[in-house]
Amino acid sequence: MTVATPRFTVERRLLREHTLIIACDEVGRGALAGPVAVGAAVADAALTRRRILEGLRDSKLIAEPRRADVAARARAWVPASAVGWASADEVDDVGIMRALGLAATRAIGRLGEQGVDVDAALVILDGNHDYISPVQRFGRGVRPIIKADRDCASAAAASVIAKVERDAYMVALHDAHPMYGWAQNKGYASAEHRAAIAAHGLSPHHRASWSIAAAPTLF
Predict the structure, then answer these.
(1) Which structural domain range is residue 40 located in?
(2) How many domains is the chain partitioned into structurally?
(3) Where do the annotations place a divalent metal cation binding (predicted)?
């Protein structure tokens, strides 16, 4: 099956009215353990005149052995990028949607620290729900776009950058908690992960407020 290459069609249209685009995509929303992460990637008119990065796709469509290379080249390709985080404790305390909003605003804040004029940017967000504005409003607003990570090159870049960083974080946690297999499942609800929870209970990195025993297998 041929996988569609993301394009700049949406970004070019939006950049007729806005100076900058900040594309955001989340990773880890459905995991049982670990933080949620939101990647943010900047697109400007100069970027949209460049060729699409070779191998760039929604992170879920890139084979795992190739993701780190694509993410490294994506970071060098876009004008600026960042990843924001919300911990498992924050997911428990405020709920997943609010936690996603916190992670996204932290990512955008880090872009501001890099010199990006975030108040001049329109934020595009993969999905159909704006979870950012209830946490913080930005000057040009937030525009959810269904399948942005598949169709918009900037969102695909944000997706793979965040995916690689979160996966690396979960692999780093593995040695302290090897029974859960996070090096393989990255905190998602594999059958082996759920069996380990049943045998060993929850770690401090699990989202304790979730109905973990009944969690579906997500991949």
Answers:
(1) 9-173
(2) 1
(3) 25-26, 126
